[in-house]
Amino acid sequence: MTLDGALAMPLVALSAVLLDRAIGEVRRFHPLVGFGKLASAIEKRLNRGAIAGGMLAWLLAVGPWVALAFWLRPLAPLAVDVVLLYFAIGAQSLCEHAEAIAKPLREGRLDEARQRVGWIVSRETATLDESGVAKAGVESVLENGNDAIFGTLFWFALLGGPGAVLFRLANTLDAMWGYRTERFNLFGRFAARFDDALNFIPARLTALTYALLGQTRKALTCWRAQAPGWDSPNAGPVMSAGAGSLGIRLGGAAIYHGQEEIRPPLGAGPAPVAADLDRAISLIRRSLWLWLGIFFVIGFVHA
């Protein structure tokens, strides 16, 4: 393998990340927004409360775009991969959303912070106190760090741009359909299970990354003890390791769709405050640069 060939993957990843950092998320006509509207239309047509309908809907929503990505890639591999990964990765957007919560929270504008955090979480936020807003924000940052960044990079490293597209579209459908409600319990089951499978390895690599870049021993202890008690097999490791790494306590009571849920504890330490949102953002950014560095090391080794 030539040096240029070995370094193609890390150079494309770096280019896409820098592009995302420079211009952020597309404000109008973002492909993922359009995909969400398409998925909603398909769901309304095919959701008859059956697993088979959910599988067909998933294939109709995801299959053509992944096939198109694989078809386009040979035409200009590096350029296509950069564009696809740029659209799939969400590092800058995630950090901007978290910073938009942290700033008003630091400045005592609790109502604005509640509104901002309500844009990125599914729990009810109208009555959250400062710690509750910070907790919801940190949990979202840690979990979406895997979904929007590291899982995307993992599948990009394996399959190039089409792999990144596959992961993000599958993850989007899980976020839209993967609920245990009357409407989605059967229809969304395939989307949820497929996302679990795609995320199994990336989630554990993300958890390990969080642990290495913070309070490592505490993070590993929390991961081992707390992750099995979390509903999601992948969010559990990510958030318990992240909370342990930051030395804060997450989980506990939260209100979803009018019903209070008592969730298992995550991490160890004091309840989070506004400053912990900034620390979570820093953890995400440092983790991203570590992953890119590892990509370059792998490229040099292969060369």
Relevant terms:
mainly alpha, single chain, 303 residues, 11 helices
Question: Could you walk me through the main structural features you see in this protein, from its secondary elements to its overall organization?
Answer:
By secondary structure, the protein is mostly helical. The chain has one domain (3-302). Helix content is 73%, strand content 6%. Helix 5 (91-106) runs antiparallel to helix 11 and helix 8 (189-212) packs antiparallel against helix 9. 44% of the residues are buried.
Give a quick precis of the structure.
This protein has 303 residues and is mainly α.
Mean pLDDT figure: 93
| Structural class designation | mainly alpha
Taking pLDDT < 50 over at least 5 consecutive residues as the criterion, the unreliable ranges are: none
Q: H/E order of the elements?
A: HHHHHHHHHHEEH
Based on CA atoms alone, the radius of gyration comes out at 19 Å
Largest sheet: 2 strands, antiparallel
Task: Record the SSE blueprint.
Layout: H1 3-23, H2 31-46, H3 51-72, H4 77-88, H5 91-106, H6 110-118, H7 130-177, H8 189-212, H9 216-226, H10 235-246, E1 249-256, E2 259-267, H11 274-302
Antiparallel strand pairs: 1-2
Helix pairs in contact: 1-4, 1-11, 2-3, 2-7, 3-7, 4-7, 5-6, 5-7, 5-11, 6-7, 7-8, 7-10, 7-11, 8-9, 8-10, 9-10
